[in-house]
Amino acid sequence: MDKTISSDLIRGHIDTIILRILHEQDSYGYEIIKTIYANSSGKYELKEPSLYTSLKRLEKQQFIKSYWGDESQGGRRKYYKITETGQECYHKAIKEWKMAKQIISDLIERKGVNE
Amino acid sequence: MNELNKHVDGLFKKYKRYPRINELKEEILSNLEAKKADLISKGLSEKEAVEQAKKDVGTIDYLIDDNRCVYINRVRWEWLQAALLYLLTAWVITIPLSVFPSAYGANLTLFVFTVLTGILYLIISAKKDEHFINEKRDIPIKPYQIMKKIGWAVWIIYVFISIVKISGIFFGSNVFFSRPIHIDGPYQWAKILLEYAIPFIWVIVPLAINQYVCLLLKYEAGVNNE
User: Fold this and answer.
1) Is residue B223 part of a domain?
2) Are residues B59 and B79 in the same domain?
3) CA-CA distance, B32 to B38, in Å (whole number)?
4) What residues in A contact B37, CB-CB < 8 Å?
5) Is B34 within 8 Å of A30 when comparing Cβ atoms?
């Protein structure tokens, strides 16, 4: 069994995962990737294309906003901040996930057989 | 300019005209710099870190709004099929007409293109492996849409000019050479009508371009982020 999560399984949740990070604090691209890696104990590494696609989508939906940091060296960083609608969306996504997790689990696992 | 800078510059080369491109460029570059610094702190050499960073951001085509990610080979296959059909139809129509000298050139040209398209179609049809069929590519849709418009415009102008030219030759004969043209019998009539009809055959060119744009939309693969 692979020790990393399959990208097929996680794909639909990347937006929510990023919202969760920005819910805690503002962050920039590479830091988001690092945080996700750390939060998953190294079991999931978000790739740059997925990151940028997701950030772009979230910004378009106005769930997040961006602003430039004031780093003096190494180029300016673009930080992202969750908006109020983003917060609402995040809380909604948590509820949906809890429900989905239960249903999918009921559908996939056979009680007492696979354990 | 350091190597990452050059790499990112290269990624954006095609998109100099796009709005807000500098922001995106700066964002990606600063993230790559952060990644490089991070990888170096983990023990990689500078060279390895730069290589890794470059590899992880190998394209940004998917971030350009006008780009669509399409299953390129499915588009090609179906387009060749359609083009072949257009060409065959046009060719078959011009076969009986090719006894007239004015249709002979068109018939020959159509034949050559039919054969070439047929060969390409067979080559693509023969490739059945999944990787080939599922190959995705980010395609800028706008240039094709412009090409479609130009295609129709050029065809319409061509038809118009041809009609004026033919009319000029047939009916201006009286003015230029002071002798009217003689239409005696059905052969002459057919010849004149044919002269008018030939330019219309080339409607297959704008039709084929049109078809390509339609297929690009049909085989859109969604976001290409794998």
Assistant:
1) no
2) no
3) 10
4) 74
5) yes
B176: number of CA atoms within 13 Å, CB side?
8
Q: What is the DSSP string of B64-124?
A: STTEEEEEHHHHHHHHHHHHHHHHHHHHHHHHHHTTSHHHHHHHHHHHHHHHHHHHHHHHH
- Which of residues 56 through 85 in chain B touch A, CB cutoff 8 A? 56-57, 59-60, 62-63
Architecture (CATH level 2) of domain A7-108: Orthogonal Bundle (1.10)
Residues B76 and B39 in one domain: no
pLDDT of residue B226: 43
- Tell me the pLDDT tens digit for each residue of A22-68: 999 999 999 999 999 999 999 999 999 999 999 999 998 999 999 99
The pLDDT of residue B1 is 65
User: Which one of B45, B63, B81 terminates a domain?
Assistant: B63
Q: Which residue among A34, A56, A75 places its CB closest to the CB of B33?
A: A75
- Partners of A7 on chain B (C-beta within 8 Å) are 226
Residues of B in contact with A53 (CB under 8 A): 62-63, 223, 225
What is the ipTM metric for this complex? 0.87
pLDDT of B66-124, one tens digit each? 777 889 999 999 999 999 999 999 999 888 888 887 788 889 999 999 999 999 999 99
Which residue type is seen at A22?
L
- Same domain, yes or no: B206 and B127: yes
Same domain, B36 and B104: no
Domain assignment of residue B15, given as a range: 3-63
